[in-house]
Write a structure and sequence with these properties.
Radius of gyration: 22 Å
Distance between the termini: 39 Å
CATH class of the largest domain: Alpha Beta
Number of helices: 13
Strand content: 5-15%
Strand order of the largest sheet: 1-2-3-4-5
Shape: elongated
CATH topology of the largest domain: Restriction Endonuclease
Largest sheet: 5 strands, mixed
CATH architecture of the largest domain: 3-Layer(aba) Sandwich
Helix content: 40-55%
Number of strands: 5
Length: 297
Amino acid sequence: MNSQEKALARNMFKLKIHQSNGQAFEDLFTSIMNYAESDFQAIKPWGNIGDRKNDGYIQSKGIFFQVFAPEDIKKSYPKVIEKLKNDFEGLVKQWSPIHEFYFVVNDKYQGINADCEQTIQIIRQEYNLNKTGFKTAKHLENLLFALEDDQIFSIVGYLPDPANIQLDYSVLGEIINHLLSLSLPKTLDSSNIYPDWDKKIVFNDLGQMEANYLNNGYFQIGSLDEYLDNQSNFFADEIKDKIREVYIKNKDKHSGTLLFWEMIKVITPKTESAYQVAVIVLMAKYFETCDIFEEPT
């Protein structure tokens, strides 16, 4: 698949994630694991004995999985912690040896509560396990896109022709729409800043207005990073590559303020201030990480 087809497949997978609760999510997890791990064995409830607190395991490695898919993850964290504890207590009584334990949660790309993470680390220490952790939507997506194309299609469905689709399904469209939904930060989102930020602005011949826009965009880098942390590796890498691609294609034709505004023109899906502000947040992030514009020498 090329990057455009992969972006479309990702959107189809995200739709499955958001629509999958309960057994549907467990079936989605199982279908991916059956391809990703040849020794993976799903365990289905059977009569009165159920699944003995084991939704699937890799016996040769002593790796066990429990799956949970609430409809609203943010309202269900107490249930996540309760189920995590109860399921592992039941698991350890009926299966051995257990070297690694993973709790697979459909977080719908929202991340895991800190209390949940602390709880599973306590389990690791108390039972002297090699590894424990949560597997969330982004982890399943990473597993999915490590598969062969035909295996991916069997899970997400076959792709329509991108040329016949009018909607914006690109990674840039998705991240810009997310940035549009953010409210103004009341505190500084990120405590880190490129040490030569001001020098870099001067070195690249950016004016005071462009500097102000980048500084304002910087305030929302923390919210942007939080969103990217809950997405797949493909998504984060594709965003960076797209922004850098626009920069490289235009840096020989434009420089300074002209290059700054040309990038906004190329990236922005609509010539409206709200969209331009969202794009500037993206540019501020990759300005800070030195993926766009030149470092001072």
